[in-house]
User: Fold this.
Amino acid sequence: MTERISALWARAARRVIQIRGDYVLAAMDLAMTTAAFVSALVLRFDGSVRSAYWSRFWRFIPVVLAIVLLCNLACGLYGKLWRQASIHEARRLFLAGIMALVAFVGVELVDRKLPFSVVVTGTLGSFALMALVRFQSRMFSFQRNEAQAGLRVVVVGTRDLAGSVVREMSQHPEAGFRPVAVVDDLPESSGRSLAGVEVAGRIDDLAEVAQRFQAHLAVLAIPHASHDTVRRAASGAERAGIPLKVMPAMADSMRLGVAIRDLRDLHIEDLLGRDQVVSDMEPVRAMLAGQTVLVTGAGGSIGSEIVRQVLDCDPLKLVLLDHDETHLHDVTSESHGPMEVELADIRNRHQMMQVFARHRPTVVFHAAALKHVPMLEDHPVEAAHTNVIGTSNVIDAAIATDVDRFVLISTDKAVKPTSVMGASKRICEQMLLARAPVHAAYCAVRFGNVLGSRGSVVPTFMRQIVAGGPVTVTDRRMTRYFMSIREAVHLVLSAATLSGSSARGDVFMLDMGEPVNIADLAERMIRLSGRVPGIDVEVRITGMRPGEKLFEELSSDAELPTPTTHPSVTRLSPSAVPTDVLEQGVLMLGHHVETLNSARCGQLLRRLASDVTHDLPPA
Assistant:
């Protein structure tokens, strides 16, 4: 009871304070109106106002004050927090002034007391003074901004979101950001100001603008910016030697204003990715809707993204299979739909047969694999056990349960393999082609590195930069293909719909764009973090590791590429290892795995993956 009474008293006290503030503001409005009309009258008669006019004035001014109060109340000019006033409040003030002027003119027409010039000038003057009082915290904020300490910011963007970012920074100087210039590609913006900040050039002029205004930071405020725009902004920031931060598009699309806390660092994915390929998802949805889909390696980077995209296509049931309980838990906790979890190991043939027999999947995405090249060079038994024997078990289980569609996730390292990992994936492709049932659609899909996957070069470089270096690059000439995980899986699903035209399975290659120089990538990531390569963070050349290539390829000269109906998916016709040699080799690999014979495993993997396989080494 006591707490309730205290709350009521506190609420009443706040209301009294608010009412008292409104009374003070209203009194100021009346005083300013009186002063404005007195000044207008004195100026009209050059300081010599006859007593007759003063008499009329004092009879007229009560009417003026009453009209001003009524108009201000009608337009909601009281009960506002004017420190946060915006264009909305300015419109209300302007409307109140127009209403008052019309009322004054009407009164004058009925009973003329003062010259029209006095009425008009007095009205304009009074509402100018009201605006000055109400907007003084906004009108003179630039003086505080000039004196405030903080990072000098160049905003890169178009008018709407860029203006929101500029206003947010100006209104919250405590955040430590001070907008000093805007760059905008719109021709009509050039030379103008945006929320009081000069539009000083185009995006390509960012470096020069940043230097001219002595900026410390650039902020990209363009919703859904193309990768070309991001690259241009990043290039300008790099030349100026300043970091670039990004305003996420969600803040703009929700139209809830822009919060400085929404700013994020520029991700290298923003630069290496490509503008998303627009595909018709209806064939994918038609392929998956109402089907029982099984994903191996469902907890991995690729597998978990397959799970997310398959769930969007309304499957009857989605089976998530992985041997890592933590990864399975992570993907199931962030996904929602008709899912069942199988904590199982693809290396266990009997277990795979049981899982497939229990769920009877109609579509299988086989993403389970070991992928780290240097580690597998030292552990060829594990590469053979998981990638080859495990894939053999999954393919056989799919055939035994009449799976209609099977998709093997492959890699560019399977082309002319120089590593244990690449050789193992090449053999997986060969097994799929050799065993694919005539009545089913079995395919392998090749692509290069995916951005953000566990253990990939981008997060590795980022960790090294945060730690202060060195950033390790094996060779300055090395290049790699990159694609976002989302786009890679999107194209994998599209490729799956194209499978089935070949009598013995298909191999598809995804368009990965242009290869990226790894040393350039490392230096760019260092510069984007606000550091200088070679000075703040060392780039150390360590030499190529066993199994690595300087340049990756997505197809060999012997594999004839054929276009498909999808512009980013190409069908290949790979050369095949003789089936009897392949199957004998897989059996021998199984024997070497059981005996933990690393040397024989490595030798046999490379021999089976060779394009010229006449015989096999002795068991």
